[in-house]
Amino acid sequence: MQIQRGISKDSSLTKFVLGAHPIIEHFIDRLQIRESISTYMRTDKRMKLDDDKALTLLIHNILTTPHALYEMEDWLKPLDAEKVGLTPKETKFVQDDKMGRALARFYDSRHKDVFFRLALRTIKIFDLDCSQIHHDTTTVTFAGKYGGWSATELLGYGMNKDHRPDLKQLVLGLNVTADGAVPISHRIYHGNQTDDRLHPANHKALQKLLRRADFVYVADCKLATEENLQKISAWHGLFVSVMPRTWKDDEQFRNRVRQGKIKWKHILSRKNNRKPESQVDRYYVAEGDYQTSQGYRLHWIRSTQKAEQDAETRTGQIERALDELRNIQTKINTYNLKRRKQISRRIESILKNKGCQRLIQYEIHATREYKRTYQKKGRPAKNSPSKISWKQVYSISFGIDKPAVSAEAKTDGVFPLITNLDPKTHPARKVLEIYKFQPFLEKRHSQIKTYQEIAPVYLKKAERVVAFLHIHVMALMVAAIIERKLRLAMQKNKISSLPIYPENRACPSPTVFDIVRLFRNVERYEVTAGDHAMIFPAQLTHIQKEVLKLLEVPVAAYQ
After folding, report:
1. Bridge partners of 217?
2. Predicted pLDDT of residue 277
3. Which residues are within 8 A (CB) of 302 and not within 5 positions of it... i.e. 6 or more apart?
4. Does 404 or 15 have the greater pLDDT score?
5. Quick check: 14 pLDDT over 90?
6. N or C: which terminus of the chain carries fewer CB neighbours within 10 A?
7. Sign of CA dihedral 507, 510, 516, 518
């Protein structure tokens, strides 16, 4: 709250900023997050602010205006303490050291049990459909030195998805339901963790949480290793993934496509949600039955939009490869490019890195360069003795192999889906639709990095850093539940969109951050003059009241 003194000594105006905090607090209460934290976390009774309240306060901060911990005290001042789960007296004890200590104790507590209980309650209260689980990882990049890192999850270098291989990282694995992309479990791994090694343990953890193994497990091509697929099948699990390009089945099929031996059948047309103004994406499946050597079903899919993307990617790769080849033309016969093998090795390296080994042809030309050397110094006479020597001089020529480019263009947009689902219940179209939900999981990763600003991390102690990442996932769970609740209510009431974008533009799929923007100016006031007090409740617009109704948040929460 903010207090402004009036002209008379005993008068004042108190402003309470509400924003979207009553909505967030409503769902925190429904999920019983404070109760879950306090159950599995040791608390010091001498502390004047409970750790569970400190950590849920971080959820409010992350979902509205993410700040560093040292700014929490100033961030809290204008807010209505009761709407973020605090009493007015408890606000005096909110400062960065208290929040940091709460994070450290959360890390040392049974925080895995907190998330396990939270996931179970989320599934039960909101009746989540967990028959289809999507998994993917992302990286959390760290800048600066972190000496004496003591957390179990080690910082390290790895395949950085933020395109910063020069920085250390942690790997965050996330499991979401196909029912609203709600996160139900996660794990933080070492920075050098590769995706292909974590799937069996992750699947086992999901079996324990869901008490079933027959859910459809969806992941990218790192899932498709012989060991991973055998284990999931042995557990009577189901999976959908993309077969890696390194499998021999892939090259054999693409050769048949280049030869024109494949017939395609249209199975699905849909708009691109990422590019609403683009043309409809059409999907085709190769006719016939295909299986891997292990007996898993293969569906060869062709997408028109992916074909366009593949063509653009190939053009860019060829242009970059040609630029590098032109660059080394001037360096031939110098330093480590004096021999044919050295030149050939450099060219092959460029073509391999750019994926143009089949698309660009090159030749290395060799000629002799002669040089006459006189045995005596000075200007040579007509009959001065001399010696003729020569050396090999190389040059290169290169160009685009147009027939090879045309043949490769025939495979544009093709990708194979591998699955062990029953073909009677899950034909090619159904398998494709299952896999096409994967971008919604990627959107959750984007959400945690952009709106929630998970990085940069303004903490140094390792335990606090990792605990803070856990709280970010907890905040993401709350955000996902709010979004799912609102969108389902819109479908139930046949509301196609809400005018909550800037300038009252229509929003067909509201996010929690659209809701935060909609309620950001909501405030209430109290005026006191001596023994008299006047209360001015928050004035809500029609659309704000409608959103509250759809979310089943009582209007009284804003009084």
Report:
1. 133, 239
2. 59
3. 264, 283, 284, 285, 286, 413, 414
4. 404
5. no
6. C
7. positive
Question: Contact at 8 Å (CB) between 232 and 214?
Answer: no
> Count of alpha carbons within 13 Å of 472, Cβ hemisphere only?
28
Domains and CATH numbers, the chain: 2-111+462-514+525-558 (no CATH), 117-305+415-449 (3.90.350.10), 310-409 (no CATH)
φ/ψ region of 295 (left if φ > 0, alpha if ψ in -120 to 50, else beta) reads: left
Cβ proximity of 223 and 199 under 8 Å: yes
Q: What letter represents residue 99's amino acid?
A: M
Asked whether 325 and 362 are in contact (CB, 8 A), the reply is yes
**What 3-state DSSP class applies to 464?**
helix
352-411: pLDDT as tens digits: 999 899 899 999 999 988 888 887 888 887 788 888 888 888 999 999 999 999 999 999
| Angle between the N-to-C axes of helices 402-409 and 304-329, in degrees from 0 to 180, rounded to the nearest 10 | 150
Tokens of 116: 């396990």
Q: Is 213 helix (H, G, I), strand (E, B) or coil?
A: coil
DSSP state of 220: -
The reported pLDDT for the residue numbered 558 is 87
Tokens of 418: 């591998």
How far is it, in rounded angstroms, from Cα 346 to Cα 333? 13
13 beta partners:
4, 527
> Would you say residue 529 has pLDDT above 80?
no
**pLDDT higher than threshold 90 for residue 150:** no
Please give the Cα distance from 337 to 335 (Å, whole number).
Answer: 6
| Cis amide linkage into residue 416, ω under 30° from 0 | no
How many other CB atoms are found less than 10 A from the CB of residue 149? Answer: 18
Phi, psi dihedrals of residue 55, rounded to the nearest 5°: -75, -40
Q: Is the pTM of this model over 0.85?
A: yes
Lookup: tokens for 76: 């809290």
DSSP string spanning 137-196? EEEEEE-S--TT--SSS--B----TTS-TTSEEEEEEEEEETTT--EEEEEEE-TT--GG
| Beta strand 297-303 pairing with 414-419 | antiparallel
Residue 21's contacts (CB-CB under 8 Å, 6 or more residues apart) are 60, 64, 79, 80, 83, 84
CB 64, CB 516: distance < 8 Å: yes
Q: Which of 285, 220, 201 is nearest to 438 (CA)?
A: 220
**Euclidean distance between CA atoms 13 and 522, whole angstroms:** 16
Question: What secondary structure letter does DSSP report for 328?
Answer: H
> At CA 462, angle to CA 461 and CA 465, rounded to 5?
90
**Long-range contact list for 545-549, CB < 8 A, 24+ apart?**
546/498, 547/486, 547/498, 547/500, 547/510, 547/515, 547/518, 548/23
Residue 167 identity: L
* 469 touches 172 (CB < 8 A): yes
